[in-house]
């Protein structure tokens, strides 16, 4: 990204001149440019309008929602829908459960995955490419294939009724991608660095922790973000292992949201959807370049 | 000089925990699940041997046929839709918006990070007809078309699902394919332009062949994900109406947890896994052949 920045600023000036909005260029408006503008506007409306509609609806009262046009603004702005969703709708509890399941899984996954990535890429031993392949194979298998045995194990170990099944399953299913991505990042770190460090008597384990981990700090953030979105948005695993209402994650809770009020309360329901959406959107707002890079890097694993 | 980097104890300490967790959570359950395929029962009531009965049931079960057909149909349409929509967007970014596309790229990408459950519920309300006419139907009314009960029939519910999943992911594929298009050297495009190629012809004869590798890897990635579709369906239609929009993943889930038949559930999971492997293999083979011919 550091290489991209200077190029972008100069190119930005250049293309602003071409588009003729702010620049001094007096290029006439050609039909082709109009066509591009229409397409881009349409694209933005299609991508963004549903979210605006959702937000406006989240501020309507039930009557307002049911009786007035779907395009209208709220007659009175019901900010109370949000606190209603958070408390009466138990969304606060669900968010807490999600955090309690996601954050430990994320930490565990990154720690184990980084160590394994180091061992597979920097360390030299027979069978490491085969081991990496075994990890990679895990990305192909649908999670349905592991749910039932895990359910049995967690049940017999007395872990059902806690968040441990979620933490463990998220860690295990997230490891293949984490190991693969970390191994890829370690490819850019020269082995000589660790040989030199260990000559001074520092063990390789210490070199891993004090030298290699700071070097891949950026990669850790990227992989962490990608995995955060995967786990936070997960429904299948959460639905399988949260048989208890008090353990629901935000996604499971939202799916069953209507059931918690007597009749459907549309305002709080939309408020709950909004809270869920704007949480991830907020992260994206600040870290979008990293998220885009990470998610697309995670895709090119073939 | 590789002595320190070959330290077996260190390798064990670094790799051991990850390998252990991965084996216990993924590898062992896969084999275990294979074993379940030959049983009947569930965790609470216990399991009894069932021979190959689950497999013969699998071949005769009309619900499995429907779910398999739905899965393949959905995967084919969404994969093609995602990649084509993404490719068109990527072309727009590279050839029309040029360097100023960064903001549009970022905006079009964001639905990817949104929770599928939230998007599913949003689309459900967006396309609904009752209790309140949603935006799509009220738009139809405005141009004189009567409201359509999108979730009343499997056919229309299917298309809402398709639209939703393409909406969600086209920005993602656009960025993925954008990276491939940017890599095409300017000289190649310039010399093709000098030879008189422009517009569609330039894209068809120069750009498309050159971006074939990244298109193929997008296809493989996409099909691998769409065959496993679960969240979108559960949130949007929950498989309905009837089982009209039930993919294999959801049928497996219902069999296992609604009807508590883990044995048969495992058999369906196995079918799903085999389908995923086969389809990936076929797509991979085809892509390899195309690339070597091209």
TrEMBL record, chain A:
Localisation per UniProt entry: Cell membrane
Keywords from the named record: Cell membrane, Membrane, Transmembrane, Transmembrane helix, Transport
Membrane topology: Multi-pass membrane protein
Native source organism of the sequence: Streptomyces atroolivaceus
Primary residence: membrane
Family: Belongs to the binding-protein-dependent transport system permease family.
Full protein name: Carbohydrate ABC transporter permease
Start and end residues of each ABC transmembrane type-1 domain: 95-287
InterPro entries: MetI-like, MetI-like_sf
A Pfam family: BPD_transp_1
Residue segments, region Disordered: 1-29
From TrEMBL, chain B:
UniProt-annotated location(s): Cell membrane
Predominant place of localization: membrane
Annotated transmembrane regions: 12-32, 74-96, 103-123, 157-182, 202-223, 262-284
Keywords on record: Cell membrane, Membrane, Transmembrane, Transmembrane helix, Transport
PROSITE patterns named in the record: ABC_TM1 (PS50928)
CDD domains: TM_PBP2
Record InterPro entries: MetI-like (IPR000515), MetI-like_sf (IPR035906), UgpAE/MalFG_permease (IPR050809)
Family: Belongs to the binding-protein-dependent transport system permease family.
ABC transmembrane type-1 domain mapped to chain residues: 68-283
Pfam family name, one: BPD_transp_1
Topological relation to the membrane, as annotated: Multi-pass membrane protein
Protein name: Carbohydrate ABC transporter permease
